[in-house]
Design brief:
alpha+beta; ribosomal protein; flat; Ribosomal_eL21_sf; structural constituent of ribosome; single chain; SH3 type barrels; 1 helix
């Protein structure tokens, strides 16, 4: 939150948490936030002033992805092809040769010596 405004500042437990707005008043918002209490997660309703709230960026990324998927689908339909719109995990990096100034050092364990 904005530290210059002390009114309506959420408790430290709720700083940086994502929640859903359920109520709007003149100067504040009612937000449902999940709080971990021992072994369970409890949805808590807290009132926060507007200065301490900001939009989540994940929604923007989702809407951008939807727009891109619609564009790809439209282009594929015009070309008469099928296109996979599912997100894929990052593939492994391609093989490459590592070059160094010095020769690699072979590491081996020291042989065990029994001292009686």
């Amino acid at each position: 939150g904005n530290g210059a405004v002390q009114k309506g500042m959420p408790h430290k437990v709720y700083h940086g948490k994502t929640g859903r707005v359920y109520n709007v008043t003149a100067h504040a918002l009612g937000v449902i936030v999940n709080k971990r209490v021992r072994g369970r997660i409890i949805p808590k309703r807290i009132n926060i002033r507007i200065e301490h709230v900001k939009h989540s960026k994940c929604r923007e990324d989702f809407l951008k992805r939807v727009k891109e998927n619609e564009r790809l689908l439209k282009e594929a339909k015009e070309a008469g092809k099928t296109v996979n719109l599912k997100r894929q995990p990052q593939p492994p990096r391609a093989a490459h040769i590592v070059k160094g100034a010095e020769k690699p050092v072979l590491l081996a364990p020291i042989p065990y010596e029994f001292v009686a």
